[in-house]
Amino acid sequence: MRVIAGTARSLPLKTLEGLETRPTTDRIKETLFNMINMDVPSSEFLDLFAGSGGIGIEALSRGANGAVFVDNNKKAVDIINSNLAFTKLADKALVINSDANMAIGECERQNKKFDIVFMDPPYNKEYEKQVLKRIANSSIISEDTLIIVEASLETDFSYVTELGMNIRKEKLYKTNKHVFLELSQNAER
Predict the structure, then answer these.
(1) Pairing mode, if any, of strands 176-183 and 146-152?
(2) What is the pLDDT of residue 2?
């Protein structure tokens, strides 16, 4: 796995050994960033279930102002910190070793606001549903925040309208998909 573009272009990233994480492939990462390329520069980026940190590091490399990385696995957090140091992007990053919902609470306490929220939770466990419920009325997002969920192809997102969100678009791949969400314009906040 490597950084695709930007200041850390072509630098290799460490990944977690074993089956606990499944890093987003370079091809899917490149497709994703081609789709959000105009949103990334000067953004504040939240990388939930960050694994090796590859998505958030790509955002920083492409000009995001800052990124928060969240993972509850201590080994993953160590790899994220190592990758941030290697890419010389650590000064723009905050790494939180916690579950996603607790980290969201910490970000609220620190008055953080995000332009892009990316999450890649373990598939088919409904973690994304728990997090979307948690952030739907959170101060860390606004009507302009882009929320991206990487999920299995069979993951159902029909419930998001009940949370005051819309599906902006979906990008399907062979084995998974990216779902792009935003708050409904008429959602109560």
Answers:
(1) antiparallel
(2) 82
- Backbone torsions φ then ψ of 88, nearest 5 degrees: 60, 40
The two tokens of residue 153 are: 């192809």
Distances (CA, A) of 106 to 60, 84, 112, 154: 21, 21, 9, 31
Structure token digits, residue 23: 């890093």
CA angle, 118 as apex, 171 and 141 as ends, to 5°? 115
Radius of gyration of the chain (CA): 15
- Beta strand 146-152 with 116-119 is parallel
Tell me the whole-structure pTM to 2 decimals. 0.94
CA gap 95, 103 in Å, rounded: 10
Half-sphere exposure of 4 (CA within 13 A, CB side): 19
Cα–Cα nearest to 58, from 24, 20, 91: 24
Segment 108-137, tens digit of pLDDT: 999 999 999 999 999 999 999 999 999 999
Residue 167, both tokens: 């599906």
